[in-house]
Amino acid sequence: MAEEDVYTRPGPTNDIYQTLTHPPNPGTRVQRNTAQHGDTGESKKNVYRAAAVCLGLMCLLLSASIIGLVINNNHLIKHLTEQKVTFETTLDELKRRLCELPGWQKSGCGCYYISRVLESERKTWEESRQYCRDNQSDLMVINSKEKQDLVESLHQRVWLGLTDTETEGTYVWVDGTPLTTPTFWKNNEPNNGPYTSQGEDCVEIWNKGWNDRACADYNQWICEIVM
Fold first, then answer.
1. Where in the chain are the domains?
2. Angle (nearest 5°) at CA 165 between 162 and 169
3. How far is CA 183 from its chain centroid?
4. Can you state the percent helix, strand and coil of the chain, rounding each to 5?
5. What is the pTM of this model?
6. What pLDDT, in 10s, does the model give residues 37-85?
7. Which residues pair with 104 in a beta bridge?
8. Alpha-carbon gap, residue 181 to 145, rounded angstroms
9. Is the CATH code 3.20.20.140 the one for domain 104-226?
10. Is residue 159 within 8 Å of residue 204, measured between CB atoms?
């Protein structure tokens, strides 16, 4: 009886024999592997779907941001345009009122201030220009025969807004434009002051013609506001 119990008792040895005599069905392993691969494929699809959704949301947010920027930019352009119109209107009104002040006179498309004929009120070219700029104007630019006729009618020596201080012989108006025709130089002018050591780099109207003169000399002047 003792020997019989040894051979019939269940244990690890019998499990091994059972495995050897009844091997597992290969189909079961294939099914398990197929199921595992199926789970992996489905997981990848879910990841792709999530990525696509996130990308779509990002595109929507980017589009909304661009639209918002365009709208804000349009509002800004409109605001700046309105401000520009308001500024120009205010500036025109200021110029009109300035022309009504004593000493100013309107002529053509401009408004002019001619300094008084007093020795004590004469200024250098730079001082004269600064006076004009302090009064929202600048030294006169002559670019037409009408303007030349205006200064000739004064019968005074006055500074004009013309100089070649930057480059000798290259005359430029105070508004930045180069000197072109028409020109109204006196005979043998400009000559850069051959008898002076400091040269002559600023221009005045004198005896119905232009004359270059030392900028440090004292003279009358004429300011101009272009309307």
1. 12-76, 104-226
2. 80
3. 36
4. 50, 20, 30
5. 0.59
6. 556 667 767 777 888 888 888 888 888 888 888 888 887 787 777 777 6
7. 113
8. 10
9. no
10. yes
